[in-house]
Amino acid sequence: AVSPDGGVEAVCRGRLPESTEYDLWLREPGGLFGRRIGAVGSESMGRCRQVFWAPGGEYVAALSEGGHLRVFDRQQGRVVATRWLV
Predict the structure, then answer these.
(1) CA atoms within 13 A on the CB side of 35
(2) Cis bond leading into 4, ω under 30°?
(3) Cis omega before residue 17 (within 30°)?
(4) Chain centroid to CA 12: how far?
(5) Rg for the chain, CA atoms, rounded
(6) Which of 35, 54, 55, 67 is the most exposed place for a label (fewest CB within 10 A)?
């Protein structure tokens, strides 16, 4: 998902083959690498299903297939909220 200002792309990336966990990364649109901002989930929680941006671009959220939602502060790279949506 591309940020509202178009300058940053948020992507979920698995740590396979060494792990079954998924992380949220911020990178330049179309880039391969970027900055890891945090863990999203694992195979047992369900893979990363969708990424959302707040309208102002200050927060980015990732939703797992299992309904686990994590909201991250874009600048500080920390979790600011977490919810189960099931």
Answers:
(1) 11
(2) no
(3) yes
(4) 5
(5) 12
(6) 55
What is the secondary structure of 45-65 as a DSSP string?
T--EEEEEE-TTSSEEEEEET
Predicted TM-score of the model (pTM): 0.84
Backbone angles phi, psi at 82, to 5 degrees: -145, 140
Measured CA to CA, the distance from residue 51 to residue 11 in angstroms comes to 7
Q: What length does the chain have?
A: 86
Phi, psi of 66 (to 5 degrees): -80, 0
Rounded to whole angstroms, the Cα distance separating 81 from 69 reads: 8
What average pLDDT score do residues 75-81 get? 92
